[in-house]
Amino acid sequence: MPRDTAPSPAIRTVSWGRMEVEGLAPGKDFTLFPGGGREWDWARNGTRHSPGICIADVAELLEHGATAVVLSRGMRLRLQVPESTLAYLARHDVTVHVAETTEAVRHYNVLAETGPVGGLFHSTC
Q: How many structural domains are present in the chain?
């Protein structure tokens, strides 16, 4: 698995339906990893609020070298995180943090200062 040594981008602001991330255009949902990120297109891997975040979504973070992952469940905690996704991360010895979006952003920014972190952020429900 390739390891990108570039830092993970900081999240500057988050509010309902909008996020601003260092080096990226503003957007609603983001996939972030060491060296960059992009808007999170749920249709790409078939992500829905339920069953939730897909293994393919988190696998991309690991491919970019993340050793810790932050998963946001949305502002109203509607986005689920299936046990299969958590088990996948555990099998890869990845530290995972699951939280409401504003808490997840705070946690991600702290981790981004000290090591290769990835995250999936949903800025609405």
A: 1
Residue 70 lies in a domain: yes
Q: How far apart are CA 34 and CA 59, in angstroms?
A: 13
For the chain, what is the radius of gyration of the CA atoms? 13
For the segment 6-16, what is each residue's pLDDT rounded down to a tens digit?
899 999 999 99
Q: What is the pTM of this model?
A: 0.94
Residue 2 belongs to a domain: no
Among 48, 70, 49, 73, which Cα is nearest to 61's?
Answer: 70
Nearest CA-CA partner of 68 in 36, 33, 23, 99: 33
Give the residue from 108, 55, 105 showing the smallest Cα distance to 82: 55
Q: pLDDT tens across 32-61, in order?
A: 999 999 999 999 999 999 999 999 999 999
Q: Is 55 part of a structural domain of the chain?
A: yes
